[in-house]
Every structure is written in structure tokens, then in C-alpha cells.
């Protein structure tokens, strides 16, 4: 087993490299970029132009005032290209001017894409994700700052989905075809069919003061003055705030996992070893949890990494937007719109690494659930 785990860990490196290479290549083909975003912002704000060019901006039509309609000044654009890592200045020996002076006095050389990718991956291997183009903060600090929201949604949603879905799926399998199985299946299918966006809005309307009851807060993870509450009060306030977002993010995974558990148990219950165990006089509970459970749970465990990563990183953007939660979903969306490449690639690298590690942990859970599985022998 040790050799298998070592091989899986070594495969993480080329897999991450491939993920980053494909996404980096795609960004080179997508129109627009950080400079276009800056120009778009400057064209609509005289104050912003004053900040970067020193122009007064009193008369947008005057020659010495507003210049946003003409795009970025060449010297300032060259300075940004160097700061963002797209170019470098070749200055005479001993030259000591700042970047803006170098933009005027030195020759600019664009850095080819392959070299920029190599530099970026070299930094990422040292877990140096750089600095955001637009937020004046390191990518690591931004991820750490937004992580609690995504951890809250991901962990609670995954935990609740498994705690409810697995017992419910087992119960449905045992009572397959009964009235209990029929009406619970109807509820589950209806829940799965409801888009997460509409369900989240429905929760807000019903329980957050939209039109009916104001039971839960509308936004945020904590109330004003949360620091002054007691330890118990902080915990209750936290649970009060996360109830609606967690319910909204759990609904689709809950339905999928319940049906997956039921079908997996049904397949195992019909096998010969179950009939043999019953013929030996074992109780239904011993048969179900002593023999069927381990085999039936394998396919459920196999879906754990994708469910966890999907809820933790991918499925939170709508929930965070609706409930005004400033987490990784919102950060990733805004960074993609703004073409904030350090944040995009930094979060992609971190999330890809976490997803691959979770996949290895899933294999270890296979062995824990069913010791008969030997990945080393299969190799």
C-alpha cells in the first residue's frame, strides 16, 4: 500500500502541471486582459486617471485634462506590463530610475508566454502565488481571508448530506417499493429538480424577511457585535447565520447521494452472499451492516472527492452571491471577470492540489471500509 500511495503522490506533480498548462494556454486565446479592464475603468473615471497620470481632469474635452477616452498613456501601460510580469526593461548599466522613468528611457522587451508560464510554475512550487493585480494584496492572503466562508459551506453541506442521505438511502433500499419509498422518492426528485438559485431565493423569501417570516438573517456569517458575545452565544449566532446557505447548498447533493446509496444497497442485497448470511440465521441488522454495508458503501465513497470539491469550491458562487457571503466563489468569479491572473491561477493551483489529495484520501477510505481491497496487488 505504501508503494501505491507513493506513486499517487508522484502523479500529483504532472497532473497539476497539465491542469495549469491547459488553463494557461486557454487564457492566451481569450480576448481581453487586465490592461483592457484597467482602460475600461479609466475611461469612466476622471479621478482614477488623476491618480495614475496626474491629469487634472477638470474638462474631459480639454487636451490637458481627461485622457481616458484615449486609453492608457504609453509609459504607464509599459510600467503595468512590467509590474504584471508581461515585459521587462533593458536599461543601460548603472541606470537607477523607477519603473515609470524606465518606461520612458529604456527599451521594453515582451516576455514570451512559455517563459511566463515557467516563471509562474517555479513560484507556485514554492507556494508563492504572487500579488493580485487589482486588490493590492497577496493571493495567499486573499485565499486565507475568504477560506472560512467556503469551509463553512463545504464542510457543513457535505457532513449533513452524508448524515441524512446514507441512513435514508439504506431505509429506502430495505423498504423498496413501499409507500415510504414512493413518497420519499417524490420529495427527493422534486428537490433535485429545483435549481439552487431558485431554492436559495425561496428560502430568503420565506424565512429571511422577504414576504413572510423573518427567522434567519439576510447576509453574513456573524452579527454586528459578535466579538462581545459569550462562547455559546458566538456558536449559536454562527449556526443561526449559516442555516439557510447550508440548506440551499445541500439540497442537490442530498438528493443525488440518497438515490446512489439506495441503488448501491439494492444491488448488494440481491447477491448470493446475502442469502447465505440470512440462511445461517443472522439477523437482518447483522446482514445489513455486517456484510452489505462495506460493499455497498464503496461506490458512495468513490463519489466523496467530487462532491466535496464541488460543494467546497465550485457550487458556492451562487449561494455566496445570494446570501452576501464574501468567500472563494465570489473571489474566483470577480477575478475571472477582471482577468486577475495571479488570483485565477493561484486559486486553481491550490484547489487542484486539494482535489488530488482528497482523491488519495478516498482510496485510503476504500481500504478502511473494505480491507479486502489491495491496490498494491492490483498494480
Automatic annotation (TrEMBL):
Keyword entries, A-Z: Cell membrane, Membrane, Transmembrane, Transmembrane helix, Transport
Ranges of residues in domain ABC transmembrane type-1: 147-366
Family matches, as PROSITE patterns: ABC_TM1
Pfam families documented for this protein: BPD_transp_1 (PF00528)
Gene Ontology process terms (BP): microcin transport; transmembrane transport
GO cellular component terms, semicolon-separated: plasma membrane
Superkingdom: Bacteria
Parts of the chain that traverse the membrane: 9-26, 149-170, 182-208, 238-261, 296-323, 343-369
Membrane topology: Multi-pass membrane protein
NCBIfam families: PRK15133.1
Record-linked PANTHER family: INNER MEMBRANE ABC TRANSPORTER (PTHR30465), INNER MEMBRANE ABC TRANSPORTER PERMEASE PROTEIN YEJB (PTHR30465:SF66)
Protein name: Microcin C ABC transporter permease YejB
Amino acid at each position: 500500500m505504501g508503494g501505491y500511495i507513493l506513486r499517487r503522490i508522484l502523479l500529483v506533480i504532472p497532473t497539476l502541471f497539465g491542469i495549469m498548462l491547459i488553463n494557461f494556454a486557454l487564457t492566451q486565446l481569450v480576448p481581453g486582459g487586465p490592461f483592457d479592464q484597467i482602460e475600461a475603468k479609466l475611461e469612466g473615471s476622471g479621478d482614477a486617471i488623476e491618480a495614475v497620470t496626474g491629469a487634472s481632469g477638470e474638462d474631459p474635452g480639454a487636451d490637458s485634462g481627461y485622457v481616458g477616452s484615449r486609453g492608457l498613456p504609453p509609459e504607464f501601460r509599459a510600467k503595468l506590463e512590467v509590474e504584471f510580469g508581461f515585459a521587462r526593461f533593458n536599461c543601460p548599466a548603472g541606470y537607477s530610475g523607477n519603473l515609470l522613468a524606465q518606461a520612458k528611457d529604456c527599451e521594453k522587451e515582451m516576455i514570451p508566454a512559455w517563459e511566463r508560464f515557467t516563471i509562474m510554475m517555479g513560484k507556485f512550487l514554492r507556494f508563492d502565488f504572487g500579488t493580485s493585480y487589482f486588490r493590492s494584496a497577496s493571493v495567499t492572503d486573499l485565499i486565507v481571508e475568504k477560506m472560512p466562508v467556503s469551509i463553512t459551506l463545504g464542510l457543513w453541506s457535505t457532513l449533513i448530506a452524508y448524515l441524512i442521505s446514507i441512513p435514508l438511502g439504506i431505509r429506502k433500499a430495505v423498504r423498496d417499493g413501499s409507500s415510504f419509498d414512493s413518497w420519499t422518492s417524490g420529495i427527493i426528485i422534486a428537490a433535485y429538480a429545483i435549481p439552487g438559485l431558485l431554492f436559495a431565493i425561496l428560502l430568503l423569501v420565506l424565512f429571511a424577511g422577504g414576504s413572510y417570516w423573518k427567522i434567519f438573517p439576510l447576509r453574513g456569517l456573524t452579527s454586528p457585535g459578535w466579538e462581545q458575545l459569550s462562547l455559546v452565544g458566538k456558536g449559536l449566532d454562527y449556526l443561526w447565520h449559516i442555516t439557510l446557505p447550508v440548506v440551499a447548498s445541500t439540497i442537490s447533493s442530498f438528493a443525488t447521494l440518497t438515490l446512489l446509496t439506495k441503488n448501491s444497497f439494492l444491488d448488494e442485497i440481491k447477491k448470493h452472499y446475502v442469502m447465505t448470511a440470512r440462511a445461517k440465521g443472522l439477523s437482518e441488522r447483522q446482514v445489513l451492516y455486517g456484510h452489505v454495508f462495506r460493499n455497498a458503501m464503496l461506490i458512495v465513497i468513490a463519489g466523496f472527492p467530487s462532491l466535496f470539491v464541488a460543494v467546497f469550491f465550485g457550487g458556492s458562487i451562487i449561494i455566496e452571491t445570494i446570501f452576501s457571503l464574501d468567500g472563494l466563489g465570489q473571489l474566483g468569479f470577480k477575478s475571472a471577470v477582471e482577468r486577475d491572473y495571479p488570483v485565477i491561477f493561484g486559486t486553481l493551483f491550490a484547489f487542484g492540489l486539494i482535489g488530488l489529495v482528497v482523491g488519495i484520501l478516498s482510496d485510503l477510505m476504500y481500504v478502511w471500509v473494505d480491507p479486502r481491497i489491495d491496490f498494491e496487488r492490483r498494480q
